[in-house]
Amino acid sequence: VQLVESGGGLVQAGGSLNVSCVAFDDGFMVYDMGWYRQSPGKGREAVTISGWDGERIIYLDSVKGRFTISRDFTKKTVHLQMNSLKPEDTATYYCYADTSPNTWGKGIQVTVSS
């Protein structure tokens, strides 16, 4: 499996961004997928994870009500819609697939200015 992220960029606080991840996979994406993020000087943290069936979704407490993950099984894509962005959301966002071993995208930058 190979994961390729797109989207991201620079936005003002209160704005919205969408990041997407395409899974290049010969199978049927039967694994959990989600997004992690890492900002300078901090460890990588799980932002949101979606179960293999698109359900059993969990969110980091600080993004609940603002971020939404969705999966398009036809296009083998995972989207993360981020609304009401805050400067503390600034980070490199990584797409993740719970394969064996785990698969990570290269990361995409999201910067929120105050």
What does this structure look like?
It is built from no helices and 11 strands. With 114 residues, the protein is mainly β. Strands 2, 4, 5, 6, 9, 10 and 11 form a 7-stranded mixed beta sheet that branches. Strands 1-3-8-7 form a 4-stranded antiparallel beta sheet, with no helix packed on it. The termini are far apart. The model has no long low-confidence stretch (mean pLDDT 94).
* N/C terminus separation: 37 Å
Task: Supply the helix-strand structural class.
Answer: mainly beta
**Strand residues, percent:** over 45%
Treating each run of at least 4 consecutive H or I residues as one helix, how many helices? 0
Number of strands: 11
Mean pLDDT: 94
Shape: globular
Helical amount? under 10%
pLDDT < 50 runs, ≥5 residues = none
| Rg from alpha-carbon coordinates | 13 Å
Written as H for each helix and E for each strand, in order along the chain, the element string is EEEEEEEEEEE
Largest sheet: 7 strands, mixed
Question: Topology, please?
Answer:
Layout: E1 2-7, E2 9-12, E3 17-24, E4 33-38, E5 45-50, E6 58-59, E7 67-72, E8 77-82, E9 91-97, E10 103-104, E11 108-113
What's this, in brief?
By secondary structure, the protein is mainly beta. The chain is built from no helices and 11 strands.
